[in-house]
Structures are given as structure tokens and as C-alpha cells.
Amino acid sequence: MAMLLCAAPLVWAAITDFRKRIIPDWTWIAILLIGGTSAFLLPYPTLLERIAGFLLPGLCLFLLAVKYGGVGGGDIKLTAAMGFCFGLYSLAAILFFALVPACIYAKVTKQKSVPLAVFLGIGFFTYAGVLFIYGLICC
């Protein structure tokens, strides 16, 4: 259910990141609030997995931004919010599905910086589709 609610702010973040290279604060805040609410309503992901999903990727992107300057603050906040909402393992799958198209985009456009929210959205919808198909097959 949390995945469904996060779709709208994530799509808006992707659109504005692609057009203006900025991620509106309300998008990551909405995802974080959805994650906080679902933490009380749903047993999975666990609170520990949510905290790990919030801290680890956010910290890694922050360190990359400090060292290389290629990651924006909105990307860090959005990734951290998604990590808290979906948990570390789901975020890892989303990032896995986002990595390939992001690398292809960077190679084709010869850009060092990519609008990360676009590819987080692609990874999110791919992961949601995989879960949906898996649910159809298994049930």
C-alpha cells in the first residue's frame, strides 16, 4: 500500500528533476511521512530495516556528493526517504533497477550528472511491476 501512495510524489519528483534539475521538498517529505505512517501500520519492513534504508544509502550518497560533487541534496533526501519508506532491501532492488538505465542515459548523453529522481522512478516502477507479477504467479 505504501508503494502505491508513493507513486505520485515520486513521479512529480522525476518530472521536475528532468525538467529543472531540482527535486521539490514536498516530494521527499511526503514519501518520508508515508513511510513513517506505514511503520506503525505494517509489520514489514521492520523499523530496523527502515532505519538502515534511511541511513546507509543517504550517507553513501552524501559522501559521494562531498568527495565528487555529482550528487545533489535533493537526490540524497529522496533516496533516504525512499529507504525509510521501503526498507533497505527494497531500496537495494529499486537502485539495482535504476542503475542500468541511468548508466545508459549518461553514456548516450555524455553527461556526468543525471537526473537521479527519473531513474529512481524507473527503478521503483520496475520493482513494483516485478512484485505485482510475482504476486500473480504465486497466488
Automatic annotation (TrEMBL):
Domain of life per record: Bacteria
Membrane spanning residue stretches: 26-44, 51-69, 81-104, 116-137
GO function term, MF aspect, one: aspartic-type endopeptidase activity
Gene Ontology cellular-component annotations: membrane
InterPro entries (UniProt xref): Prepilin_IV_endopep_pep
Domain Prepilin type IV endopeptidase peptidase: 5-106
Keyword vocabulary terms for this entry: Membrane, Transmembrane, Transmembrane helix
Coiled coil region boundaries: none
Keyword Transmembrane attached: yes
Protein name: Type 4 prepilin-like proteins leader peptide-processing enzyme
Organism expressing this protein natively: Thermotalea metallivorans
